[in-house]
Design brief:
The structure is a single chain. The protein starts with 8 loop residues before the first strand and ends in a 5-residue tail after the last helix. The strands form 4 sheets. Strands 7, 8, 9, 10, 11, 14, 15, 16 and 18 form a 9-stranded mixed β-sheet that branches. A 6-stranded mixed β-sheet has the order 1-6-5-2-4-3, sandwiched between helices. The protein has a 3-stranded mixed β-sheet with strand order 12-13-17. The chain is elongated. It folds into 2 domains: 173 residues, Leucine Aminopeptidase, subunit E, domain 1; 305 residues, Zn peptidases (Aminopeptidase, 3-Layer(aba) Sandwich). Strand 15, helix 12 and strand 16 form a beta-alpha-beta unit. It is α/β, with parallel strands linked by helices.
Length: 501
C-alpha cells in the first residue's frame, strides 16, 4: 500500500520572482486585469503570454492554466504556469484555494517536485488570508486516491513549495498547511473501504489522528455505551458482528477560560447497507463514506488544537455499521434513547439520526454549550441543494448566522433550511414518542427536526453533507472521492469564538 498524501516542505520567501530557484513558478492572473500582467511579464516570454491571450488559447478564466518557458536569462526558473482567477472581484478564499490546488495538481502530474507561488494577485483577500489558503490548496493537492493499486506508477508528490510573500505571513502559511493536512487525513478515512475501516478500527485511527498536544481521547466500548442507556446506537449496531464504539475527544487549552464549550458531533457509520430496509445494490459501494461527518469533526478538532485556538471544545463520534443481520433492528421495533425518548423505527435506513440522537444528548451531558452536528444524513438534501451546497439547520438564528459567516470566510457553500414547528407533526407515532422516518416530503427537514429533539437547550446546528462529502467526478482541483468539506468552516467557527446567545 502506498501513502495517500505527503505534506510538502512549505515556506514563505520575500525573494524576487526571477531569483527564485524552482521547477515551476505559478503566477495568478485576474481575467479583467491581464494587461498589467502582460506588461510585467510578456517580454520575459518573448510575447507568448500576450499571443496566447489574443488567440483565446488562454483567457484567464477561473482555474485555467497556461505553461510557458522563459527566455530571459536572468530568471533562475525556466518554467512558469499562469493560473486564471476569473474576474478580480470573484477571487475570494475558495477561488484562491482552487487556483492553488489546480496548479499544484498540474505540477504533480508533470512530476515537478519544487514549486513557487508568486503572490502578485490580491483578489478580495488580505495578504495573510491569501497566503493561508494558498498553502492549504497546495497541501490538499498533494493527495493520491490510488493507494490500493498494486502498481501506481503515476504517484508523485510535491516536495517543496515556496510562497513569494512578506515574512510576516509565515504564521498564515503554517496555519494553512496544518488545515490542509487535517483535511487530507480526513479524506483518507472517508476513502477507506468498509472491510478496512470497521467501527473499532475507525476509533483507533481517529484517536491517532487527534493525538496532538491539547487533546485527550476516550473510546467507549459496547458495554460502556449500554451503561449510558444509548439504545438507539445499540439498536443500529445489532445487525453487525462488529461492535459499536463512541469516541470522545476533549480540547481544553490553558488559554481558554472556563465557560462556553463548542460541541462537535459527527456521524460515524463505517458502512451503511440500510439494514433490514436494504438499499438498492446500485451505488451501495459509496456507503463507505457514511462516516464522513465523524472524520470531519475529528479533523476539525485536530486543526483547532494545532492552531492553539483559545476555545474549549469536545467532539463526540458514534461509530457503527448498519447491517441486515439476524439480530438487526426490524421496521416497527421501538428503541429507547439515552435521553429517555422512545422511537418507533419504521425505516432502518434512517439510522444516522438515531445514533446522532444519543451522541447529541451525550455532548450536552459533557458540557457542550454550543453544538454542531455533521452528517451524511439524507438523500433529500441532495435533491434540494445538489452536490455543491451543504444544508444548514439550527436554532437560534444568531447561531445559524454565526456559522454562515464562518462558511463565507472559509470559502465553503452552505444554505439554511427551515425548522418550522409544523414539521414536527410528521414525526408523531401512535405507539412511541416519535418515528424515525416520516416519509419523503421535506425529508432533510424532518431528519433535522428529529435531531432537534435530542439537541437539548442552547445553540445547536446541523450540517447535512450528504451531497458535498464526496466528489462524483474529478476536477482540476479535486480528484474523485472524499472532499473534506466543512472542516474549514468548523475551524473558522472556533476561530471566531462562541457568541453569547
Amino acid at each position: 500500500m502506498q501513502v495517500p498524501y505527503e505534506v510538502p516542505r512549505l515556506s514563505v520567501s520575500s525573494a524576487a520572482i526571477g531569483a527564485t530557484d524552482a521547477d515551476l513558478i505559478i503566477i495568478p492572473i485576474a481575467q479583467d486585469h491581464t494587461a498589467a500582467t502582460v506588461a510585467a511579464y510578456d517580454a520575459i516570454f518573448g510575447g507568448d503570454l500576450s499571443s496566447a491571450l489574443d488567440r483565446g488559447e488562454f483567457t484567464a478564466k477561473a482555474c485555467e492554466t497556461l505553461v510557458l518557458r522563459r527566455l530571459a536569462q536572468d530568471w533562475r526558473t525556466a518554467r512558469v504556469m499562469f493560473v486564471g482567477g476569473g474576474p478580480r472581484a470573484e477571487i475570494d478564499a475558495e477561488r484562491v484555494r482552487r487556483m492553488a490546488a489546480t496548479a499544484a495538481q498540474a505540477a504533480r502530474h508533470q512530476h515537478l517536485g519544487r514549486i513557487a507561488w508568486a503572490d502578485v494577485e490580491a483578489g478580495t483577500l488580505s495578504t495573510a488570508a491569501r497566503v493561508e489558503v494558498i498553502a492549504e490548496g497546495i497541501v490538499v493537492a498533494n493527495f493520491d486516491n490510488g493507494v490500493y493499486k498494486s502498481r501506481n506508477d503515476r504517484q508523485f508528490f510535491i516536495k517543496d513549495a515556496v510562497i513569494l510573500s512578506g515574512p510576516d505571513t509565515t504564521t498564515a502559511a503554517a496555519t494553512g498547511r496544518a488545515t490542509g493536512e487535517s483535511i487530507n487525513a480526513a479524506r483518507v478515512l472517508v476513502n477507506e473501504p468498509g472491510n478496512y475501516l470497521t467501527p473499532r478500527i475507525l476509533a483507533e485511527k481517529a484517536q491517532a489522528l487527534a493525538a496532538v498536544p491539547g487533546i485527550t481521547a476516550e473510546v467507549l466500548d459496547e458495554h460502556a455505551i449500554a451503561a449510558l442507556g444509548m439504545g438507539m446506537l445499540l439498536g443500529v449496531s445489532r445487525g453487525s458482528i462488529e461492535p459499536p464504539r463512541l469516541l470522545v475527544l476533549r480540547y481544553a487549552p490553558a488559554s481558554a477560560p472556563t465557560g462556553p464549550t463548542l460541541g462537535l458531533v459527527g456521524k460515524g457509520v463505517t458502512f451503511d447497507t440500510g439494514g433490514i430496509s436494504l438499499k438498492p445494490a446500485d451505488g451501495m459501494e459509496r456507503m463507505k463514506d457514511d462516516m464522513a461527518g465523524g472524520a470531519t469533526v475529528v479533523a476539525a478538532l485536530r486543526s483547532i488544537a494545532l492552531q492553539q485556538l483559545p476555545i474549549n471544545a469536545i467532539a463526540v463520534v458514534p461509530m457503527t455499521e448498519n447491517m441486515p443481520g439476524g439480530k438487526a433492528t426490524k421496521p416497527g421495533d421501538i428503541l429507547r434513547s439515552a435521553s429517555g425518548l422512545t422511537v418507533e423505527v419504521n425505516n432502518t435506513d434512517a439510522e444516522g439520526r438515531l445514533i446522532l440522537g444519543d451522541a447529541l444528548w451525550y455532548a450536552r451531558q459533557l458540557g457542550a454549550t454550543h453544538v454542531i452536528d455533521v452528517a451524511t444524513l439524507t438523500g433529500a438534501i441532495v435533491v434540494a441543494l445538489g452536490k455543491t451546497t451543504t444544508g444548514l439547520f439550527g436554532t437560534p438564528d444568531p447561531w445559524v448566522n454565526h456559522i454562515r459567516a464562518a462558511a463565507v470566510r472559509a470559502g465553503e457553500k452552505l444554505w439554511p433550511l427551515p425548522l418550522f414547528d409544523d414539521y414536527r407533526e410528521q414525526l408523531k407515532s401512535e405507539i412511541a414518542d416519535m418515528v424515525n422516518s416520516p416519509g419523503r416530503p421535506a425529508g432533510a427537514v424532518t431528519a433535522a427536526m428529529f435531531l432537534k429533539e435530542f439537541a437539548g437547550d442552547g445553540p445547536w446546528a446541523h450540517l447535512d453533507i450528504a451531497g458535498t462529502a464526496w466528489a462524483e467526478e474529478s476536477k482540476p482541483w479535486q480528484p474523485k472521492g472524499a472532499t473534506g468539506t466543512m472542516i474549514r468552516t468548523l475551524v473558522d467557527v472556533a476561530r471566531a469564538g462562541l457568541p453569547g446567545i
